[in-house]
Specification:
Chorismate Mutase Domain, subunit A; 7-stranded mixed β-sheet; alpha/beta; Alpha-Beta Plaits; 5-stranded mixed β-sheet; single chain; 14 helices
Amino acid sequence: MEVNKTDFIAKVKDADPGMEAKDVDPGMKAKETDPEKDVKDADPEMEVKETDLKECRTHIDEIDDQIIKLFEERMAVSEEVAMYKIRTGMQVLDPVREREKIQSLRKKAHGDFNANGAELLFRQIMAVSRKRQYQLLTERGRDDMPYEGEFTEKLRVSGSTVVFQGVEGAYSFAAMKKYFGDDISSFHAATWREAMEAVRCGKAVYAVLPIENSTAGIVSDIYDLMMEYGLYIVGGQIIRVEHVLLGLPGAKLEDIKKVCSHPQGLMQCKAFLEKHPDWEQITEKNTAGAAKAVSRDADIRKAAIASREAGKVYGLSVLAENICENRKNETRFIIVSRNPVYESCSDTVSICFELPHESGSLYNMLSHIIFNGLNMTRIESRPIPGRNWEYRFFVDFEGNLRDSAVKNALKGIASEALRMRVLGNYVEYS
C-alpha cells in the first residue's frame, strides 16, 4: 500500500492525539509528491523529447529549402510571362485569372484553416510576381508612366503672380515671402477655393496653401480641393507658428471677454484658452483676419490669436506670448500650380488613389511602395463625395518621379487601384 506520509500522520493524530509522528510504523512506504510527474502521468503526450523537436525543425528546414527552389522557379516563369506581355501589350494584372486560380488552390487545401492560409500565401506570391513584371515592363520598353510632367533646375518664380489665402500678416503670407522672395506680384483670396480658382483660370501662376499643422493635424479641405481642381504640388514651405494674444493698445489681459482666430489657431492654443473659460471664442477665416477685426472693431474687450507680425501690421499690442501648446508648432504649406513642372532635385512624391472594397486592398497598394524600398512619410484618408463610406487615400513618400523604384511603384499602384493621380513632386523647404 502506498500513502501520502503527511496525510497519514495527520489522520492518525486526529484519531489519537497522544500519538507522535515517531510512533508511526517506519516500515510503511510514504509517497513523495511531484506535481510535474503527476501531470506527465495524467497526460503522457505532454512529454515531448528535445530530440523530437529538433527532428521537426530539421524537417521544416528541408521543406523550406524546397519552397525557396520552387518559388524561384515560379518567378523565372513569371519573367517569361512579362516578356510575352511586353510583346503583346497585355496588362500585368488579370483579376479574373487570379480569382479563378485562388479558388482552385483553396479547393486543394485540406480544411478551412489551411484553405485560408493557402489563399493568403498565394495572394502574396502573385503580388510579388506582378511587382517583378512591372520592373521588367519599365526596364524593357513599356515605360508608359501614369503621370505627366517635366523637370527644370529651378522653378521660374521671378516676376510670377502668386495668390495666398488670408490677408497681409497671415502665416500663408509669411510662407509666400519665404519661398518666393520679393520679386513677385501677389494678391490675397478670402478662401482656399478662391485661391485655387485663381490658379486654374490663370489669374495667378502659383497659390500658397496650408496642408498640415504639427499640432492641429491636416487641413482636410485642401486635399479635397486638390482633387476637385486638378492642380499640382510643385513646392513646399514649412513655417514656424508662434501665436501671441493681440489686443488694442492699452488693453490688459483682465479686460478681455472675447477672443477670435482661425479654428486651427484656437485649437493650437487650447491649453491657454482653458485657463480663461469665460472668454467667448469667435472663429475667423484666418489668424491675420482676426487681428484685422480686432483693430477694426476697436473693442477693448476683444483679442485675437495671431502672429506678432500681424500685430505690427494692424497696430495691436501683445497681451500674452508663448500661448501655443506646442512650442515647436509648425505649419506645412504647399505651392500649387496648374502646370506639372517640378524641380530636378525634388525628393517628395504625393499621390492619391481610390480602392475597391476588398480585403487587403490597402495593404496591396502600400506594398508597392514598401517592396521598392521607398519610405512612406504620410498617409491620410478622405471620404469620396457622393459615394458613402468610400475613401480616397493620400500618400506621401520619398523619391523623384524619374527614379526607377518610384516608376515601378507608381506603375503597380496605377494598374491595381480604381484610380490613381500623382499630385506632385517637390522639395519642402524650412
